[in-house]
Amino acid sequence: MEPTSGALLDDALAVGFWSPRSYTGEDVVELHVHGGAGLAQACLHAVFTAGARLAAPGEFTRRAFCNGRMDLAQAEAVADLINAETRLAARAATARMDGELGKRLKALRAEILSRLVEIEAAVDYPDEVPAPDQVALARCIVDQQSAVRELLAGSDTGKMLRDGVVCTIAGPPNAGKSSLLNALVRSERAIVSAQPGTTRDIVEERFVVDGVVINARDTAGLRATADPIEAEGVLRARAAIRDAALRICVIDGSKALDDDAIAALEATSAAPRIVLANKADLGGAGADELARRHPEIARTSATSVFLRGSVRDAATIDAVRSSIATLSWGGGLIDAGKALVVNARQIDALARAAESLAHARATIDDGLPFDLISGDLRAAAAAYGEVTGDAVTDEVLDGIFARFCVGK
């Protein structure tokens, strides 16, 4: 009803979700109104007048976490699912929402806390409680180390599915960099011109390879120039090259290598890298010279791919896409269900757990008193708790849920 006049606003549907089985673990009522921005705004005004308020970013998921409906890793997966740009990324987020990471870490934490009880009881009551079995204690730490290593081993894949791969396209002017970007994204995104120095600033675009988002950056041609604007573009290009997880160096393979081409090859030498000798439809003098003078560049290895072709040729573009997959994640299909650790917060916590466990193991291996490992075990347990939310501050929670969309 309209608050002031009492007029009927809509014939709506109200759906109740009752505690404790609702999303938040609380009593929740959803109002389903008919479409139209004007009607929706009028209905919102009516419920606000009745005392409701807008939910804060992530408030429903935060309530679900606080009410024990999910652990913190699952809550983060909700945000990842909302922000997923590909079906594979969404599948990975859905797998994390099942709570497998939290289950594993809670079990590891419970085991460590159990060992701590044994150690501290033996220290406090040495005449009544026997010292813990050193062999069993060492085996527990080794097993914990193995479990943490396994989780961290999949973190690169998880982070890649979540955030994508940063790929910088670089090379001398007029080599075909912008044309390559346009071909990869299947759109005239970057300006292509025969005039050298057309690209001044970084042009960013995204495309998908095998379910992974590639954040591509087309850069200014690498060359010495007196033009201050173009020179700034070259500086930005070099910064983008340094920051990239993958580099594609495009040179004109139809003509003899010049100083700019050699300089571009040197600037992009860090692995992993794809070297594309472009314009094969116009000739192969540069590609042949590269193979003859720099065989270490003109070959394919585990960290570098050399291609001859033309950005006008669909087969070349397919080869570039395939090379991106090979160098970034080994090619082939990614098992999204194994990518449980995905963000810097989780990786940092588990890295600290691994370090604490290593210290504890060294103490045991050196034959030092067993009670010296108590601090390390507590630190590992606390790190596990940071990931699951069993040991986390309000400031951390505020930072996590602030990146959620309003409401969810």
Précis, in short:
This protein has 408 residues and is an alpha/beta fold.
Describe the structure in your own words.
The protein is of the alpha/beta class and 408 residues long. The protein has helices at 37-49, 59-66, 72-83, 87-97, 100-124, 134-153, 155-163, 177-185, 228-243, 259-267, 285-293, 314-329, 344-365, 374-388, 394-401; strands at residues 13-17, 28-32, 165-170, 203-209, 212-218, 246-252, 273-278, 304-308. The strands form two sheets. The chain has a six-stranded mixed beta sheet with strand order 4-5-3-6-7-8, sandwiched between helices. Strands 1-2 form a two-stranded antiparallel sheet. The radius of gyration is 28 Å and the shape is flat.
Give the helix level as a range of percent. Answer: 40-55%
Which assembly state applies to the chains in this document?
single chain
Give Rg in angstroms.
28 Å
Strand count:
8
Structural class by sheet pairing and helices = alpha/beta
Shape: flat
* Tally of individual helices: 15
Order of helices and strands: EEHHHHHHHEHEEHEHEHEHHHH
First-last Cα distance: 26 Å
Q: How would a crystallographer describe the biggest sheet?
A: 6 strands, mixed
Which residue ranges are poorly predicted, with pLDDT under 50 across at least 5 consecutive positions?
none
Whole-number mean pLDDT: 89
What strand line-up does the widest sheet have?
A: 4-5-3-6-7-8
Strand content: 5-15%
